[in-house]
Amino acid sequence: MMGNKLLGGKEVLGINRLEGPLLVVEGVGLAAYDEIVEVRGSDGQVRLGKVLEVSEETAVVEVFSGTSGLSVDATTVRFTGKTMEIPVSEEMLGRVFNSLAEPIDGLPQPIAEKYADINGQVINPTARVYPEEYLQTGISAIDVMNTLVVGQKLPVFSGAGLPHDRLVAQIVRQAKIGRPFNGDGNVIAERPEKFSIIFASIGVKHDVAAFFREEFSRSGALGRVTMFLNMADDPAIERLLTPRAALTLAEFLAFEKGHDVLVVLLDMTNYCEALRQISNKRGEVPARKGFPGYMYSDLASLYERTGRTKGSRGSITQLPALTMPNDDITHPVPDLTGYITEGQIVLGRSLFQQDVYPPISVLPSLSRLMKDGIGNEKTRADHPHLASQLYAAYAHVQDLRSLAAVIGEDELAVLDQRYLKFGQAFERRFLNQAYNEERSLERSMQIGWELLGYLPREELIRLSPEELDRYYQENHDPA
Prior knowledge:
eight-stranded mixed beta sheet; about 30% helix
């Protein structure tokens, strides 16, 4: 045992090796993967950690707060025989916690209604309920073109320097369960609801965390938001705990208290970087760009903790946000995320450089469950046709812009020039909206119809004659 001393039960005095945040212990006996351990140094301070790797006699432990100050001979490791659990309760709404669900807002620990395993419970696929109810964000490019459905996981793909922080904060402020429409396209009264938001920041800078806290507090949204904050200078292992703690509380609120819960995870790229860092320290064989080969299944263990279940009033909707290194959508993090989730909202740098906010690039964006959450008696009967027509027209604009760059805009036909004017108006009036502007779905669709008025009626082949008769008004001067 190389000098280790078994003190009784599963407590060991002395460790074999220290490597950064990892320590190696022999003489453990039977330890379990993900088991929580208590590490006590010569100063008597107790630090928590978890088992990352086990064999018959050896265990590799990751210490949450790092191994600084620990010595090989004077460190005691106690194996608790339990996985990590956190206290959960409805009183956690309106509060701010760290990665271990410990309060960091200066207020006392809320009274726990129960302790829940941070790894969650697997949802039986046969118990899932298909998502068919839209969630309104107040953002036109999302609500009309890429509708978010309750129980969906829809990530935001961003890049360095793009305003994904502001977009996420705006969605948290404005998000609400969508109001159903009747057959005449009029809004039916809102149903009673419990709508809550779990916001988890992963490896963000202190000024970014302060922005979110101040923004949610100023707007009054903090009362329905629970924040889990993990800073850039916190240990890497805590980045792996933060989304799991957030999702554990979300599962409790959704499946035991009947809340509709929106979980926002920012930034999942930092999570994957921490996963790579720990994998490299464990000496695992790297896969693409140095990330571990199991990153797909690890991300799936987070993203799949989403949805609705039979017999439960509540739901979990996920909105993870990530930054793409070098704006590369084929990078492993966005690539694997796109495989697991049901679409993506992509922020475009060219729109951002034109001062369009939010710079949502609608052509590469996609919501795969949108078709099931919109339409007659869900939003409006013309919603899917309007979204399809706007998409087709804007896609044609991109082709014409490429042509105009070669031959000049003045050489284009009159109809093509009208399309270009439509494209300019689409970016300036539909995509672009103020940070504090919350648009209802009705208002967003109204703007969409006004923009289609810039095009001749015969060009709008994706809309029915009845819809055109009701909503279309041609505008010959789109300037």
